[in-house]
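Predict the 3D structure for this chain.
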Amino acid sequence: MPNVEKVDTYTFTSILTRLQTWYIAPLPKSMVIEAVQPFGRTPVIATLNGKEWQTSLWTEKSGETMIAVPKKVRGKLEEGDEVEIAFVFDYDRF
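Done. Predicted structure below.
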């Protein structure tokens, strides 16, 4: 039998927020993510509406964590829209 590694998927609901030219989805404060790379980054593979992309969670000095949602993923979603995002840690990029 092959050795299968268990992969935890994390899911959260958020409201898209525009931050200058970026659209971000803040993670709930209850989801505490400790950054593993410089500049508060933690590599993940995220999924929104069936579209998967490689990205990073960003944790600010304030402790708030967010994920950027690019246009190719969000489609017609705009600021103020509710989204459900799932992610897994991308250990190959740690």
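Strands lie at 10-15, 17-19, 22-26, 41-48, 51-59, 65-68, 82-89.
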